[in-house]
Amino acid sequence: MAAVQVAGSLLGGPPRETPREPPLEQGSGFRRLSARLCALRPDDSSSGRTEIHLLFDQLISENYSEGSGVAPEDVSALLVQACRLVPLNQNHLVSKLCQLIHHLLNTLQVIVDEQNLDFLLAYAISAIQQCSSWTHMQILQALAALVYCNGSKCQKALLAVLKKSMFHGLPGLNIEMPTVLYPTPLPQYDGLPPTKPQQSESSSSRPTVNKKKKSKVKPKKIQQGEEEEEEESSGEREVAPVSGSGRRNLHKGDAQCAPSQGGQSLLLAASGAAGKDRVSSPFSPSSWKRVSSSESDYSDAEGGMQSKVRSYQAKVRQGALACFLSTIKSIEKKVLYGYWSAFVPDTPELGSPQSVSLMTLTLKDPSPKTRACALQVLSAILEGSKQFLSVAEDTSDHRRAFTPFSVMVASSIKELHRCLLLALVAESSSQTLTQIIKCLANLVSNSPYNRLKLSLLTKVWNQIKPYIRHKDVNVRVSSLTLLGAIVSTHAPLPEVQLLLQQPCSSGLSNSSSSTPHFSPPDWWKKAPAGPFLEEASVNTPKGSSEPCWLIRLCISIVVLPKEDSCSGSDAGSAGGSTYEPFPMRLEALQVLAHLARGYFSTTQVYLMELGEVICKCLGEADPAVQLHGAKLLEELGSGLIQQYKPDSTIAPDQRVPVALVVMFWTMMLNGPLPRALQNSEHPTLQASACDALSSILPEAFSNLPSDRQILCITMLLGLNDSKNRLVKAATSRALGVYVLFPCLRQDVIFVADTANAILMSLQDKSLNVRAKAAWSLGNLTDTLIVNMETPDPSFQEEFSGLLLLKMLQSAIEASKDKDKVKSNAVRALGNLLHFLQPSHIEKPRFAEIIEEAIQALISTILIEAAMKVRWNACYAVGNVFKNPALPLGTAPWTSQAYNALTSVVTSCKNFKVRIRSAAALSIPGKREHYGSVDQYAQIWNALVTALQKSEDTTDFLEFKYCASLRTQICQALLHLLSVASASDLSCIKETLELNGDMVQSYILQFLKSGTERDDTGAPPSPQERDQMVRTALEHISSVQALAGDTSKRAIMGFLEDILTVYFDSSGSQVALLGLTSR
């Protein structure tokens, strides 16, 4: 044990923040010692072992300052040589070697190359299999250093040995672990159709559990010795003793940050908080790297040696979990989830032994630190698992010959819910409790509840309610995070909708609560009801008679002073504030934002109350509270806009009345929102306030007082000059929203001012600003098209031609930018070319810019860009074709445009782009627009070829667009027939002789198929479809055929056959009679 204590002291000591003076020649000491080590040969004598010991000690004690001049390959070579010198039967030397591996890799920030990594990993895995158990902690520490940033190269054998070490010394388990774990194929990541699942590795590698040890959780047994360890953990204040920012930051986190925000570290339960809020990480180095008699996790009543052994075994388990966490953080998700069943439980079958998993540690490990470590590893596995879990399908069909993979995943999800809720009830350590709730939040965020049976969320919901009033602030914050995850996952879910309507008192009766009790409807308002609320009570839409307890809870947390009986853990965390701690208030605001986004019908009843909450938040001094208030305002504004969209399914009497929305925004604009917009010290707040201002309902904006309308417009135009890129991007986007408002879009001065502001932002150095400006330019040009279609021509006449020219030039330049900018730049170009009036086109200065703009569109169609870019370019060319003033058919660019579209419709890998190009080809309304006979023939043949290849794709995701593509091609072919001239008939006849049966079958499908909607707009009705064929037939019959040409008769016969077959199948005798009489 003395050797163990020496190892622990070397590994667990504090990091050397201030190294001593380096030698004159950087790295000379390392090279000297390395040369001595490389000169040695394997020697089993006592003197040889002593020399190796001394060399290792000297290498560990050597000063390695930054820029020490030691090459990574030299470090790897030295470690490989050291492994060759140390046989696995020398436990003390193996322990010292592992200390050396950890020390050199961490101190010198070395990531081992793949060739040496294979050798060192094999050595370490063999060591943990063959050496005494007291060396396992050092070996696991060396493994963690080796796999750092190398997780993707470490699988199978490593994961097997880590899994075995995770259960080292765990009472009641008899582990028989295979030496290798094999992954399960994952079709959702491979892009292949699901196949019959092979036997999971877990079925052959599950260790057996001692049958005497029942799986039923016994809370009293689990809690044994927790108080001592919890006290020890709450008193530790240590930083990971690793050098370099990469590894040093691996162990940092902050519980005072809002837990639901992305990028939060899962490695620390709490750090940086004041007083008792501060909780040490279960992966803090002192929790498992040091081993000394003074660090026992248990009382000495059990006997000194037994206590030390149990404490040491717990630290080995923690070390294995830390190493596993290091591995999974750098391993690819599709690789990691192949080993899902090896570490995550599923529902045990009747008569089969229960598998051991991370949940086994969570439920049965006597050490709270180890339980917290296991939960953090499980959280890391669950994070980002949405795609993997999306295949889950809950079914009660037991008649299948095998269990589908989707059912296995669903079973695993249900078992995770069951085990975590068991752990929640049994746990008493606040730190571990926080980790359980965070793990539940990760599980809820990634589970496909729309594919699972009901009740899973109900159980979580009902069990988490009491913890909202827990004495520990971290538990309360994580409980709100979990509730936020429930109301944001796959929203809106009917199950959650019912939960939100539960009585307020359900599950919230905790007398030791620090959260205020609920009162009558104006419980949280200290001042008497103002005019807004008095009028709101009349205009509020009908809602649930039962108030939403979660909304009331969150509002009370945000605005009510905390009670005097709050726990000591809150003291100091809010900086002496009379309100709840900031993390609680911020999390409550986030929950309100989630509710506004996913369950607006429930939230709308509290619209005016939430408006006053927002005003209070925006008026506070803390920027974080202001920011969350602005985010809530944006979500409420977006919810109101969704209600009034043309395709909204909300009944008019269930919508928030426009008059109430006007009151709401008047309260915002008369309150602290303008101050937030002008707060240049906090640009993030300004940007968020701009986003909120852009979420005004257009119908409400037109009813605002004129001075409030002018205030909004003036502030946005002014903020567009901001030097901060966040503010400028948000302002550009807001202007792009406002320019679509019906009450503003015909205001020539406003549209011109907005255009100038957007053109200025298009020149910004920030890609994000340019992307937002390009989107707004696209919206502005949409407004030009809408104005052009109105009977009043005054807007077109008053709009500046010079500004139009500048817009064209800027859009052409933007079309050469990155894809984010390009996609909207080409949209704007198409609209601008459509908007051009004859008076513009006649001017010489426009001729060159028009040619340049069309060439920009053509090149964008043909380049290998993102699908959205090419789709928008095809759409834009279709808009160009709509302008009758342009010389389509005679201009030199005509053939280039058609060639680009025909190339895309026959060969583009993306079917949505093909659909859009076919739609563009069917836009020209006259035969002369299609150019020469050869040009027409090329377009016709390309469309027939595209129809023939409409099912040729290697990407199965494109198959769902096949029918839409054929529909659009059939429409284009019929349109071409309806404008064909006598010279075109021979070409059409030749194609039909070769491919007539194929074309006829697809046109019949087009006539008979349903009216599925695609991205080209509303599909034609059945009557409109057969009318297209009739129109084509009538036109062909009216064409004066050339002498001796039989093409006309052949084409008419082709179309008549189509109509005959179609009407025969539909039983329309009247139509048949009409056809025969002709």
Low-confidence stretches: 1-24, 191-299, 509-540, 565-575, 1069-1078
**Total number of helices:** 52
User: Strand-residue fraction?
Assistant: under 5%
What proportion of the residues is helical, as a percent range?
A: 55-70%
Shape: globular
Description:
The protein is mainly alpha-helical and 1078 residues long. Among the domains are: 2-149, no CATH class; 942-1077. Helix content is 59%, strand content 0%. The protein has 52 helices and no strands. The radius of gyration is 36 Å and the shape is globular. It starts with a helix and ends with a helix. It comes from Sus scrofa (Pig). InterPro entries: ARM-like (IPR011989), ARM-type_fold (IPR016024), DUF4042 (IPR025283), HEAT6 (IPR052107).
Q: What secondary-structure arrangement, pairings included, does this model have?
A:
Elements: H1 2-12, H2 28-39, H3 46-61, H4 72-85, H5 91-107, H6 114-130, H7 136-147, H8 157-166, H9 187-190, H10 201-205, H11 219-222, H12 226-235, H13 245-248, H14 304-328, H15 333-336, H16 340-343, H17 358-364, H18 368-382, H19 386-389, H20 405-426, H21 430-446, H22 456-464, H23 473-488, H24 494-500, H25 531-539, H26 549-559, H27 582-598, H28 600-603, H29 607-618, H30 623-643, H31 658-670, H32 673-677, H33 683-693, H34 698-701, H35 706-719, H36 725-738, H37 748-761, H38 767-788, H39 794-798, H40 801-814, H41 819-835, H42 838-841, H43 844-862, H44 867-881, H45 893-907, H46 911-921, H47 933-948, H48 962-979, H49 985-1008, H50 1022-1038, H51 1047-1066, H52 1069-1077
Helix pairs in contact: 1-5, 2-3, 3-5, 4-5, 4-6, 5-7, 6-7, 7-14, 8-14, 14-18, 17-18, 18-21, 20-21, 20-22, 21-23, 23-27, 25-31, 26-27, 27-30, 29-30, 29-31, 30-33, 33-36, 35-36, 36-37, 36-38, 37-38, 37-40, 38-41, 40-41, 40-43, 41-43, 41-44, 43-44, 43-45, 44-46, 45-46, 45-47, 46-48, 47-48, ...
InterPro entries: ARM-like, ARM-type_fold, DUF4042, HEAT6
Protein name: HEAT repeat-containing protein 6
Organism: Sus scrofa (Pig)
